[in-house]
């Protein structure tokens, strides 16, 4: 259910962009989803078509770009985090509480019809 509401929110954002450009429909959209955003890309892709029905995004092709988490280790600088290990450096295990990247959930591209 969470992914359905995410899909609806994305459709709303896309609808604003369409209105700004005076476009009636979009044929494709690209969404960036961080590994720490709590959104499962496959679940979002599954929820999207039904959520888009009856909107200007009906039938639009959804591309999900998965963004890996990047944290900052005091010793190693920016490191790519593994979700299974949580917020800690994969090299030395130091906590990396601050995410530099990987919590995004954003509309990246919209292809207007
Ligand atoms: Zn480290």
Automatic annotation (TrEMBL):
Zn(2+) binds at residues 73, 76, 89, 92. This is Hydrogenase maturation factor HypA. Belongs to the HypA/HybF family. Transmembrane segments: none annotated. The keyword ATP-binding does not apply. GO terms for biological process: protein maturation. GO terms for molecular function: nickel cation binding; zinc ion binding. It comes from Deinococcus gobiensis (strain DSM 21396 / JCM 16679 / CGMCC 1.7299 / I-0). Ni(2+) binds at residue 2. Keywords: Metal-binding, Nickel, Zinc. Involved in the maturation of [NiFe] hydrogenases. Required for nickel insertion into the metal center of the hydrogenase. Pfam families: HypA (PF01155). Signal peptide: none annotated. InterPro entries: Hydgase_Ni_incorp_HypA/HybF_CS, HypA/HybF. The keyword Zinc applies. It comes from the Bacteria.
């Amino acid at each position: 259910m969470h992914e359905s509401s995410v899909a609806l929110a994305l459709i709303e954002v896309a609808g604003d962009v369409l209105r700004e450009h005076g476009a009636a429909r979009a044929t494709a959209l690209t969404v960036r989803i961080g590994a720490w955003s709590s959104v499962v890309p496959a679940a979002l892709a599954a929820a999207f078509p039904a959520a888009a029905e009856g909107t200007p995004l009906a039938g639009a092709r959804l591309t999900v770009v998965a963004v890996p988490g990047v944290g900052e280790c005091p010793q190693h600088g920016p490191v790519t985090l593994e979700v299974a290990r949580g917020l800690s450096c994969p090299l030395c295990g130091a906590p990396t509480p601050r995410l530099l990247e990987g919590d995004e959930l954003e509309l990246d591209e919209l292809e207007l019809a």
